[in-house]
Design brief:
The chain contains 8 helices and 6 strands, in the order E-H-E-H-H-H-H-E-H-E-E-H-E-H. By secondary structure, it is an alpha/beta fold. A 6-stranded mixed sheet has the order 1-2-6-5-4-3. Helix 1 links the parallel strand 1 and strand 2. Helix 1 packs across helix 8. The radius of gyration is 18 Å and the shape is globular. The protein starts with a strand and ends in an 8-residue tail after the last helix.
Length: 228
């Protein structure tokens, strides 16, 4: 299985070969072990903390992001500031199936189950993604949790993932959820440890404005440059 380093090299190769799709360099069907927190660009722990706080609030309105919503969230929100992709809502809300509880209950009842799946998207997303001026077709399709050899492995299945901001922020959320589920299992006397996070993406891509990160990596080997 590819590692994050392999993904970096593949993206750089596509850039050098001028392989562009809608102004991006792209890997179709990317599958790799998420063994690093970032593919390109330094982590922004301040924003990750703000986004986590907003996710846990379960608010579907971007104006509730602490200290202000980033430009991208405002761009994809409806005329009223509403979005679909608050991952905390999708995992925690009873209105969306109380999926965290169901995943944990499934693992407690059968630690070797293959049914501990949280479904992030939904069939109605084909209509919901652009209602009221919105442009938010949920990027994560589903996440599966598997206990093997006393380790909780996380298999992330994504429709689309920006390899710069998208990956590092989504990775932080999935890592957080892995830790939360391990803690909930421990409270039920099921002791498991952190396993792998495996990343599957239909379209993993880098936008033109970030090509310089790939060029810098190719020239110097540095991938975690600041984006501020």
């Amino acid at each position: 299985m590819d590692l994050v380093t392999d993904i970096r090299n593949k993206l750089v190769h596509r850039l050098k070969q001028n392989e562009f799709v809608q102004g991006t360099v792209e890997i179709v069907g990317a599958n790799f072990l998420a063994d690093e927190e970032t593919i390109f660009g330094a982590l922004n722990q301040s924003y990750i903390s703000r986004e986590l706080s907003w996710y846990l609030s379960q608010s579907l309105f971007v104006d509730d992001i602490p200290d202000g919503a980033p430009k991208i969230w405002k761009q994809i929100a409806s005329h009223h500031g509403e979005i679909n992709s608050n991952y905390g809502y999708l995992m925690h809300s009873t209105k969306n199936g109380d999926q965290l509880t169901k995943v944990v209950d499934c693992l407690i009842s059968d630690p070797e189950s293959r049914r501990a799946v949280a479904v992030y998207t939904r069939p109605s997303i084909h209509e919901d993604w652009n209602r009221d001026g919105m442009a938010d077709f949920i990027c994560t399709n589903a996440v599966q949790y598997l206990i093997r050899n006393n380790k909780l492995h996380v298999v992330v299945q994504m429709r689309s993932n920006d390899a710069i901001f998208g990956y590092r922020n989504d990775y932080a959320w999935q890592k957080y959820m892995q830790e939360i589920i391990i803690a909930m299992l421990a409270a039920a006397n099921l002791e498991v440890y952190e396993g792998d996070i495996i990343w599957n993406v239909g379209s993993l891509h880098v936008y033109k404005r970030h090509f310089w990160l790939l060029e810098e990596y190719a020239a110097t080997g540095k991938f975690d440059l600041s984006l501020t």
